[in-house]
Amino acid sequence: MRLTFYGAARKVTGSMFLLELEDDYRILIDCGSTLDGSQNHREVFQYGNFPFDASLVNIVFLTHAHIDHSGQIPNLYQSGFEGQVLCTSPTMELSELLLHDAANLNSKIVKNIEKSHKKSKKWKSIETQGLYLRRQVDEAVQNFVPIAFGNRFKFKDDGYVTFYPAGHLLGAAHIVIEVKENGEFKKIGFSGDIGRKNFPLLVDPVAIPQVDYLVMESTYGNRNHSDAGDPEKVLKDIIQEACVDITGRLIVPSFSVGRTQCLLYTLNRLYQNYDIKPIKVFTDSPLARVSTKVYEKYRKQLNKEARDFYEETDSIFDFENLHYLETDIESKAASIHTESCIIISSSGMIKGGRVEHHVEKNIENPYATILMVGYATEDSVGGRLLSGDLKDLQIRNKKFAVNAAIKKIDVFSGHGDLNDLISFAENQDKSKLKKLFLVHGDFDAMTNFKEILETKGYENVELPNQNQSFEL
């Protein structure tokens, strides 16, 4: 069999791996969008020009719902794929929400292109290729098939797949594929994104059984999380400084699916467990509201602490002074709310979304705090804020003085750190592991992690290049 790395090769996003079996059966593991702004990869994936024949792919296995793992599935169908997408039930529902959100953004892009080409008749097939809309998403999600965790599912003759809890996001999975070739089974594992232990809401990542080949993410391959404390205590100290000691606003850029739910749950626990008056919290993301309902629906798949908290309080996410904002008018009003408040808004990188408006209105305010709680690419506003001591900042072609306090915490990062990655790898017997492929990480992180694994006796650790194939 042959394994080809079409995405997340020496970079963090765009996971896409094609496994071709000896009988020409083809399995695509993840089908994600590249989010780093790379022009080359934008041409290949964003516009649907896959570097393989999509019509020859038989089935897709999806590790989790994040767009850098699922975002090109509608384009895969438009390019000729006719098979099914296998994933867990929460992944199926969260993927539908995220893909519809991407389609809404694409619709706005299409409208802007239409305005700029009013007199041209040839523009549409070129500039909007691959910008799928809601109809294409609806067509794609009809073919999603939910698979329970731990169910060894037969997807073809002598072919099985099993999904194991990965933490990281509700429904996220490690995937193990077993295929019989030449009279013996080969086992290939795909880590997906590895979660961290003792994370709010989510279960710990599960160790997968022994495999012959392992494809493993390496996002935190060169560092550990800097904040090791209790998330409630870490957040409490920031709220005390930003909103209690002064009448200030705390702006929290946050991804709508996953990160926002962890924040709301932690705030709920904080208000329950500490003697602190609930400060008004604005959640400014319609996507966050509907995805929170999915988390509530699948609360039995959350960790024991969250399940016990629900039994005690009858609520995981709802608390006094929590307000979901729906309209743009409500959003703009929250930006200038005169009392102390917390505004949680997407996107987490401050790269589009309503949060840009909140940052614009508060970046020059010395009584405001902008709290970064996750990863941000260098080209995003969030990345620039985190890059160092800025005197001014450009947002949407406007320049602003940076007077607000800029803070960062990583207790809400859904990725396992270096210690977690080492622990995951060490569950595999190094004498039985024929090859270990590192993906989904910056090259420096991959190189560092590779060196660590080699010192621990793991041989044949590979850092695949884009489009590189390996015979297994």
UniProtKB/TrEMBL annotation:
GO molecular function, one term: hydrolase activity
InterPro entries: Beta_Casp (IPR022712), MBL (IPR050698), Metallo-B-lactamas (IPR001279), RibonucZ/Hydroxyglut_hydro (IPR036866), RMMBL (IPR011108)
Transmembrane annotation, as ranges: none
Species of origin: Lacihabitans soyangensis
Assigned keywords, A-Z: Hydrolase
Domain Metallo-beta-lactamase: residue ranges: 13-249
Entry keyword Hydrolase: yes
PANTHER family per record: CLEAVAGE AND POLYADENYLATION SPECIFICITY FACTOR FAMILY MEMBER, INTEGRATOR COMPLEX SUBUNIT 11
Phosphoprotein keyword on record: no
Beta-Casp domain sequence ranges: 260-385
Name of the protein in question: MBL fold metallo-hydrolase
Signal peptide: none
Tree of life domain: Bacteria
Pfam families: Beta-Casp, Lactamase_B_6, RMMBL
